[in-house]
Amino acid sequence: MMLLATLDGNLHDPNSPLIRVDDLGVLRGEGVFETLLVVSGQVRDLSEHLARLQVSAHLSDMTTPPIAAWHRGIDAVLTAWREPAEMVLRLTATRGSETGAQPTCFVTGTQVPEKIRQQREGISVLTLDRGHSGAAAATLPWLLTGVKSISYAVNMSALRYARAHGADDALFVGTDGHVLEGATAAVVVARGDTLITPPEDGILPSITVRRLFHHAALDGWTTEESPLTRTDLIAADGVWLVSSVRLLAPVTSIDSGKIRISSDHDRLLGLLRQN
């Protein structure tokens, strides 16, 4: 089941055309998006995702509608959703037609795919060289490394490569040996009673990591941003890929080598699920 709404609050048949063939989102992958989890009708971290969408649009030199317009589309999907399961809410804005000045914006709602639910139980990763360091990418804004862009061809290629080589997901590492991020997720490790995530240089800032760190700090954990290497991950007490819908996926192997699953996994997942 998929629901589709435009920002005027109207629902549309998801099987009917909505995007023009000359839309720059189709022709050149120009656009931004956000993916959110809806639990029991409540959208998690909505204001944070809307704010990041605006930042992504700004960094991409795009003009997007005001937040109130997005709320109309979101409310239309939430009202029409009748399934008991969790929902994936996706907000998309493309640059629009080559000949027009208005972006193409819409909201979709679907069930969480079963394969995503399964990855919450454990995931194997393959490390891949990203071709630059995070620090270098931070000085090259045209790479859009801090933008949630719909141009995901490289990320999807990395996933296909990882799966062709026996892993579930890809984990990007910089040319300086520092861990960056997963193909579609952030990275968190546990070292004793400390949770660590890589610095935000050259990667997408993670809203879900911020949520986890907030609740973990209240629960007595120390949290920090610090460079991590592949060796650090192997030696850690726990490693996770963290994202809005997948939540907290424990990494069970890196480059075919088994690693430990943290005994605190359920505790941390419980913290992440808090409102």
From TrEMBL:
<dbReference type="InterPro" id="IPR043131">
    <property type="entry name" value="BCAT-like_N"/>
</dbReference>
<protein>
    <submittedName>
        <fullName>Aminodeoxychorismate lyase</fullName>
        <ecNumber>4.1.3.38</ecNumber>
    </submittedName>
</protein>
<keyword id="KW-0456">Lyase</keyword>
<dbReference type="InterPro" id="IPR043132">
    <property type="entry name" value="BCAT-like_C"/>
</dbReference>
<dbReference type="GO" id="GO:0005829">
    <property type="term" value="C:cytosol"/>
</dbReference>
<dbReference type="GO" id="GO:0008696">
    <property type="term" value="F:4-amino-4-deoxychorismate lyase activity"/>
</dbReference>
<comment type="similarity">
    <text>Belongs to the class-IV pyridoxal-phosphate-dependent aminotransferase family.</text>
</comment>
<dbReference type="InterPro" id="IPR001544">
    <property type="entry name" value="Aminotrans_IV"/>
</dbReference>
<dbReference type="Pfam" id="PF01063">
    <property type="entry name" value="Aminotran_4"/>
</dbReference>
<dbReference type="InterPro" id="IPR036038">
    <property type="entry name" value="Aminotransferase-like"/>
</dbReference>
<dbReference type="InterPro" id="IPR050571">
    <property type="entry name" value="Class-IV_PLP-Dep_Aminotrnsfr"/>
</dbReference>
<dbReference type="GO" id="GO:0046394">
    <property type="term" value="P:carboxylic acid biosynthetic process"/>
</dbReference>
